[in-house]
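Intended use. Records such as the Small guanosine triphosphatase family (GTPase)-like Ras family protein entry shown here are meant for training and evaluating sequence-to-structure methods. They are not intended to support clinical decisions.
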Amino acid sequence: MYAEEIKVVILGNSGVGKSSIMMRFVKDEFSATQPTTMGAAFMSKIIKTNDNQFKFQIWDTAGQEKYKSLAPLYYREARIGIVVYDITSLASFGVLKTWITELQKQGPENLILAIVGNKSDLQDKQEVPYEDAMNFAKQVDALFELTSAKENRGINDLFMKLASKIEQQKIQNSMKKNVSSQSFAVNSNQHNKQGSCPC
């Protein structure tokens, strides 16, 4: 089966676990000493749904300030944007809007957005209330998922939900094309009738 390529970008402050999320999803691995990403890292994985197969091309962007000018290069033509915060860091949650604004400037209009609260295994140190994160996700029309790359919680669910969103978009686009082609056919028929000789 053909696997449609889908560009995915992961954004967020340095240290929130972006690389760990990607590593857990693609390789099912976790390292407590994951090195800081320089510029960007890339991995891919094929994900299967009931009706489709997608090749997620995942770009993990560096969260450090000195790399921010490079980030827009990776946002272009992205179909999915995953914006990550650390549930134990209110500061990492507070800058989500900035990351999203940057992403939406460069991404397509139909960009699928996900807000991810990582390190859910550290709930005793949680600084970001669940309700606040949920409400924010609703405000920006994004999926919301709590994850723990360390304990492999919510990672596969996140990517399966994103794949389902892509499927929904494909169906909607197909329906729009059918409606517009039917409309064109009706208009053409009416034009032909009007132009035909009544004699």
